[in-house]
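Hi W.,

Here's what went into the run:
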Amino acid sequence: MSKPLIAITGASSGIGEATAKAFSAAGHPLLLMARRLERMQALNLPNTLCKQVDVRDRASIAEAVDAAQEMYGPVDCLFNNAGIARLGDIGKQPPEEWDETIDINIKGVMNALHPVFNGMKERRGGTIVNMSSIAGRKLYPDHTVYCGSKFFVHAISESLRGYLAPYDVRVIVISPGIIETEVLDHVNDPDTLKAYKDNKQRIGGGIAASHVADMIVFAYQMPQNVLIQEMVVTPTRQEY
Ligand code: NDP
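Here's what came out:
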């Protein structure tokens, strides 16, 4: 196997799925992780291990990483992408939705990093791509805990970047605006959903997940001494 292993969380749909296809097309073996195993298997990508993983379960991510590394060698790139968007009016939102957001978007991100980054440090190479959002840089109505979770991603990424830089390990943050995926399926507040959809329609819709995937592959393919620290991508008409 000439090309190194790429691990992706949240690979069963949307941006994760698009990025899996893009890395596969570039010839990489893959570890795909998400809860919907059949969706990942249906992609039918070569040299790919699909594992049913809930990112809230730290042990199951570690087991999946071990199994993939056994087959394909060390993880050279982690796309730490799994996440949900439970947007809603903070005064009315059930705190269980806050818990879910924190458990998946915050703790899940740390859980995926844990089995990967020390190995990269020891090998003195590797790339971590953490999925944030434009909502990790700016505040939006009804995004209270979601914004908090994505601001978290920026904070730990900046810290990890400094920690890993002397070992030539790259930490990239990608912050998309409105991308056409299943992400809105997780919004339960009808008023929030309507406002989001109205705004999306006003700007002419979101952009395809494949564009985000192409950016990630581009950043990864730069020489190891070149680090694109942050990428922000939105539809051209998304003015804020
Ligand atoms: P999708 O809903 O299509 O994809 C989300 C992915 O995350 C799915 O593969 C889902 O898999 C996985 N996931 C969710 N919860 C868990 C869990 N507990 N354990 C494992 N996997 C999980 O939406 P996107 O592709 O849009 O979302 C991907 C990332 O991009 C998210 O972090 C999101 O916050 C971020 N983002 C999206 C934007 C957009 O406009 N679409 C904008 C900015 C950021 P499964 O359900 O099978 O477990």
